[in-house]
Amino acid sequence: MIPKTDPTTPKPNPELPFLERMLRDAWRAFRSAENYGEKRGRAMIFQAHLEEWLNRPELIRDLEPGPHEGAKGACFPEEIPEGTEMPFDRGGAAADAFFFATGGTMSRLFTQADLDAAPDLSRKYGYYIVTLYEKIYASPGETRNRFSSEEAVRRHIPSSAERPALTKDRYDLLMDAAGSPDPKRMFFVARYHRRQQALKAADRLAAAFGIRFLVARIAGWVDNH
Fold first, then answer.
1. Considering Cα of 53, then 57, then 63, then 66, what sign does the dihedral take?
2. Which of 1, 145, 150, 186 has its CA 20 to 30 A from that of 118?
3. How many Å from the N-terminal Cα to the C-terminal Cα in the chain?
4. What's this model's pTM, rounded to 2 decimal places?
């Protein structure tokens, strides 16, 4: 799980050749149009493809500098009281800290007393399988970089390609939404049988990529179908 190549090395943007083929096709379609109305419509399509090409950079990197803005949106759409702690807000060891997650979206942190007082709380966080996690640890440093795509993540962290079936008391390694390809959701990285393995991986990957990683125990799940 250590990067084999430098993820900050610039490389040609693979989207540009694809967009250029679309431009060529759109130009041929424009030239073959037989009347003004048809030409105008195809010219608009050509213009849209051209603007898309102009908005793409020549070079990209798997790991870009700076966290995603607005990554707090990874929480569920609910009113979060000011000062409420979210799972990725604080680094270091955690105690009596639980959160719900489904589809990469997470809740705020709750204590065991909160959960005991509201046994149906999971229903607030999704209509399908909602996982209850216990936060164990998060790497200390703030997120200062972000992956540019899911493909980039999987090039450097192959274990993120598959998520095993839920098993209680396993330890999931999760990526801060501010450093993941999608600032609206946290990103699953790996699942471990042993806590110590997960803790070491969190620190190792945080040092390699400059992103905060969180270790969470699968405390249970609820099927809210």
1. negative
2. 186
3. 36
4. 0.82
